[in-house]
Amino acid sequence: MSEQKLEVFNVLNFLNSGYGLDEILTEGNFGTFPSGEDCVNYLVENGYLGGNGGVTPESVSKQYTVAQLKEILKENGLKVSGKKQELIERVLPILNDGSSADYELTDKAKEFIKENEWMDLYMFALVAFRFEDYETFHASSTEDNVTTALNFCDQIISRALMANQFLVFIDALSAKAHVYAYDGDYESFLDYDLQRFILGLNPIIMDAQTYASYDVINEANVINLKNVIERFNFGSLKKRFDKIWAKTHVTNITVPKKTSYKILNKAISGANIEELNFDVREKYFNKKFGV
Questions:
Q1: CA–CA separation, 90 vs 111, rounded Å?
Q2: What are the φ and ψ backbone dihedral angles of 104, each rounded to 5 degrees?
Q3: Which residue range forms the structural domain that includes residue 193?
Q4: What whole-number distance in Å separates Cα of residue 6 and Cα of residue 138?
Q5: Do 173 and 33 share a structural domain?
């Protein structure tokens, strides 16, 4: 399955980047596997992980009685109730004590990562969109990974505009910005995230149902803008804002240009985004969208 392939890639890619297996299993979401333990077993059985992985549920079940498991859990301040399998799952991290680091990536795993490095870009920039859709698009592309991802974003933007799907449209703008960031082009990243901010304040189309849960100012967008502005010196923010406003061709103005720039400065200067959202909605949006 495509989703399982992506999950396998993520675990192997994190391991290859120096993360410990325990960290990955603690933080990971293994949607197609019942548990992180099942994911590890799959990787071992299919030749992606080799070496000594430490204690397994099977070995614990054979070696310890329920009373012994409860005693270990009690000594570590953990809950002692439940069936034996539940106790085993609870006690595994204690017994392993980092021994999962003994697992090693096999040559098969390293080749898998190399062949599917485009998935890393998907996770970095395109995760808002269905993996199966991007997998199909990527398979049909003859371009490099970055160009393919940019073309995918452009396709979504075009379709969203034709279908009046504004939220999909701005998600694709944000995704395109992140593709540029992945490629190290932070100036283009800034330009597209600025465009996303401007259009967030001046949506091309907005129905009452969409508006009910709409954040005029997106907090993640603001954090991205702030980080890039603080990290790089790309010249006058006002000049860049004016350039992107002109390039965006804002025709359905909800928040005027000067006010939009003032709101941007407030947001990146540390204003409470929730309060700022409330004020902007009250002053500019509620009446216009019939709320």
A1: 34
A2: -130, 145
A3: 118-285
A4: 14
A5: no
Question: Alpha-carbon distance 240 to 226, whole Å?
Answer: 14
pLDDT tens for 174-214 read: 999 999 999 999 999 999 999 999 999 999 988 888 888 89
Read off the pLDDT of residues 79-95 as tens digits, 9 standing for 90 and up. 888 888 888 888 877 77
- Kindly state the tokens that stand for 81: 């109730």
Asked if residues 126 and 170 have their Cβ atoms less than 8 Å apart, the reply is no
How far is it, in rounded angstroms, from Cα 65 to Cα 88? Answer: 10
Question: 101 and 210 share a domain?
Answer: no
User: 47, 48, 53, 37: which is closest to 9 by C-alpha?
Assistant: 48
233 domain-assigned: yes
* Residues 13, 146: Cα–Cα separation, whole Å: 18
Q: One-letter amino acid identity for 107?
A: D
Which has the minimum average pLDDT: 12-26, 117-131, 222-236, 248-262? Answer: 12-26
